[in-house]
């Protein structure tokens, strides 16, 4: 045997292997003549290089020699990815084949970060011969390869990225047949999807039901998805492979969102529980975020959409089964379509994870998606058109009457007189808690279930109808339920007379009116009782007092005694703690007083803070005094509401009744005595005296008349209390105060004549007088001051002035006539006043502010202190009540003051603190940032002449 040539060839091979380092020669893939397609996906070698070139060893040729070739990338200066394979032609004929790398494959595309497709092959370089010709296609990278007889050629494929999901070698005719075979299928599926989307959109216009737009949106999403998947979209818009990723990911996100919207809308999930709405909103927000991510990374957005589709299928199936078990017809009808959807999701998961990898899986999944939309469309059409116009035409007259009764909530009641058998619908038995047939039986059985107070009347009506053989039954009565309670029903029936002239039966309808009766009783209760405390109101009190007086006249028994209780300073409770606390205090007062009265006595709430009692259990003066004193003592005990302990007292008026007078007159007498006790300081008992009451009324009329004369004759004057600026301890402004010097009675305090002015309506005239006088004198002081530090004057405004429509015109006229500097004429308004009508007050104050007047919020912290409203009112100054400034050595005082001052500054307001009576108070307020103080420490109210001298030569307190 000649071994020399063989040894030489082996040595050459070993040498070449040594040159190639770690490279190993490729094994060439034989290409048979009759093979239609060869899968090269797993037969290629993959190379990832950090440079723009790759060196590979070729497959051994016909001479057995392995060569080393170097291929440069078409994209220089960067890393590159390569795939290498070798083909051999063992035949003696030339072979032409197509190398096909699809841009997108659903199979093995992945779930979380799916491969959405792109250009796969950049170039193909053979080890010998000319480079393969590229065939243009929008769905794949295709290169035409020619193999000469006996040739072995190594191909180096430059990849666009490291992903190469599929690589096939096709016979040209076989590939064309494969593409054409799916073209018809793709056209049919796309046509069905488009027609479904269009049909459902038209149905929405015609029917207008909410489920149609949701289903139409799902159908359009499926149409868009299949258009992208089948390449139809690319042919119309000529998308680049990079843009195809964006559109493919977008259609998957759209499909996931449309499925969630359809499930939520079709099942009316918002009607079952609000949490369904919350979950749906959060779900859709997540998909909206996925739409945003789509611009940055379509793969991540598509992964979120695919997870959403799977979760929607699983969670939707659970919700559908849950609602179906509760006999919800929509859920029951959706089960078949949703079962197909779950099966489709499972199949899609097997495909994208590579568990199944048949070439027909991808078009089958797209077709299955269209099938699901068809099933859903059939389901909603069946539901939406069930009971439509055609069905309505088939309803008989009897069925229409039955439906009308059901719609009206009525049930059938029938009494077969000849058989003496009463029957009622199951609806009534269910309302009463009886089993089926629980109301059936003879008439006496039905009558035994009636309330004892209704039995005799109902029996008489039945007997009359049967005896007279005519008439109608229209009765309201109570029936005993299974648990022993009585429910109200109304029966409307009429007798049916037979051929013999006798009543055969009575038939009609029976309705449940229990809710209406309860509402009626509640209205009756509210008409004669106080809504808050449940005590009798003024009308019921007068009725009971009139009855007691009549009984006293008729039977000669002891006359009743009337006590009226007026709570002292209760208005300050509402202003300081709010109306909710005030209501709680009222409830506590009502309970305390009720416990002290006996059964024959009556306690009522007349109005607001006024209570009244009819005492029948005591007739002696000592006993009545003891009852009144005991009730006053009970009211003095602290009432705890939350963290507050509230102490009250009462002014009590005692009226001894006269049987010859009306109840209204008796009550007015006791009320007059109570008001007299309150006028004398409160917390005392006053016995009604006709002469005293006459003197009180005469005194008030006389004071009102003299007040009118004082206004006309100049008896009313203004005094001014300084307001000091803490930065320089100089007067910055003044508060105008009304003063009345009576010619015979001397000085009458405002606490006495202001209430009379408010009751008589003179407060408006007083307020206008104060505004005009203060503005005129302020203009004179400002004329003597040079520079920008003009003094200001604050004027108190009453609620009657604020709520009048003329206040804006009054302010405008005063400022025009006097010419005071803008912002120096300030109107002081309390929190309680603006809260009487906050909307109207806000508009009025805004107009006044626009005219140049200042606005000051007086007594801040003693009323509502509503920050929401405070921000809406255009105040420029806040006056802190003296109760916050002068409250002893409380450790919380600096905290409260600091918070109020900081709040005012945040809202752009200045702060005036009332009640600064010591140097320590002033210094602390200055350190907290307060701008102004007002108190007797800096001066008592003074006349206009004294203010004029002070403005000329201001004097500051020593620091």
UniProtKB/TrEMBL annotation:
Start and end residues of each PAC domain: 473-525
Membrane spanning residue stretches: 184-206, 218-240, 246-267, 279-296, 308-325, 332-352, 364-386
Keywords noted in UniProt: Membrane, Signal, Transmembrane, Transmembrane helix
Residue stretches making up the GGDEF domain: 558-690
Domain EAL, first and last residues per copy: 700-955
Domain of life: Bacteria
SMART domains per record: EAL, GGDEF, PAC
Protein name per the record: PAS domain S-box-containing protein/diguanylate cyclase (GGDEF) domain-containing protein
Organism: Faunimonas pinastri
Region forming the signal peptide: 1-25
Xref: Pfam families: 7TMR-DISM_7TM (PF07695), EAL (PF00563), GGDEF (PF00990), PAS_3 (PF08447)
Gene3D superfamilies documented for this protein: 3.30.70.270, EAL domain, PAS domain
NCBIfam families in alphabetical order: GGDEF, sensory_box
